[in-house]
What we know:
The complex is a heterodimer of chains A (about 90) and B (about 210).
Chain A: H1 2-8, E1 14-19, E2 24-32, E3 38-45, E4 56-62, E5 67-71, H2 79-90
Antiparallel strand pairs in A: 1-2, 1-5, 2-3, 3-4
Chain B: E1 5-7, E2 27-38, E3 44-52, E4 55-60, E5 67-71, E6 75-81, E7 91-96, E8 108-109, E9 114-115, E10 123-128, H1 134-146, H2 165-205
Amino acid sequence: MLFFSYFKDLVGREVTVELKNDLAIRGTLHSVDQYLNIKLENTRVVDQDKYPHMLSVRNCFIRGSVVRYVQLPPEGVDIEILHDATRREARGG
Amino acid sequence: MVLGLRNFTDRTQTGEALLDTENGEELMHVQSGIDIVFNTFPRQSHGTLYISTKQVIWLSDVEKDKGYAVDFLSISLHAISTAPDSYPVPCLYVQIETEADEDDSDYLDSASNAIQNLSKIREMRLIPSDPTQLDTLFQVFCECAGLNPEPNDEEGEEHDWIFNTDQIEDEEAEEEGYNSHNPANSLGQSNGNHDLARSVLEVGSLP
C-alpha cells in the first residue's frame, strides 16, 4: 500500500502519467484508489502531435494496470517520507 | 479473458442486454440515446448503453442483431471530451487495450469501410444526445472500473513467495544444513585450493 498512500498525499498537484502505450497525460491529480487507478482533472496530452485527437479532455480516469510511470513535481517528492515508508514496507508493515 | 471489443448479440425478449447474472453480473446503469464511434469509422446512431459490473454494452435500437461489448478489464482509460478540437461534439472517450500489434491496421476494409476485426479497435467514443449525462456516465465508468481490478492483483498485495508448507520446511532444513556445514565448507574449499594448486604445479612440472 506504499504507493497508494504516497500518491494520496499528492492529490491536488500536477503530475504526468505515462501509459504503457506511450501516451503521456498531464493533469491535476484528483484521486487515486488502492489499485492505483488514477483520476486526473484539467488534463492535456503531452505529445500532441502524436495524439491530436486527444488534445484536451476535462476529466480522465486511467486504469492502474496500464500506467508505466507517474512523473511527480520535484517539490512533491519528500525523500524522508519515502525512506521511512520503504523501510517499514521492507519490515513487513 | 479476451481483450478488446467484441460483438454482442445476447438480448432478452424485450430487446435489452442479457447479462450473466448467474455469475454475479449486475446492471449498474442504462442510458438511451447514445451514439457510438470506433476509431475513425462513421458514427453509429440510435443506441442504448448498458453498463454492468463487468462490461459496457452498446445495443442498436434499430438493428436488433447489432451490438458491441467491452470488458472493464480492457478499458485503459476513459475521459470526458468537450473540446471541439478533439471531437466536434461532447463525448466520453474510451481507450481500449487490445492484443493486436500497435501498427496493425488491417482491421479496416477500405473498399467497404466496414470494421473487419473488432478486437483491434483501440478507441471508442460514446456520444449522449444530452451532453449533461456525460458526468454521470464518467462516474459510473469510474465506479465499475474500481470493481474490476487486475485478476492477478491480490488484495492486500503481500507477495511472500512461499507456495506451500513443504517448501518452508525445505527452506528451513536447507538453512540449517548450510549453517552447520559452513565451517566444513570453508575448510573443504581451502583443501580444494591446495589440491588445485598442486595439480597446476604437477602439470607445470611435466616435461
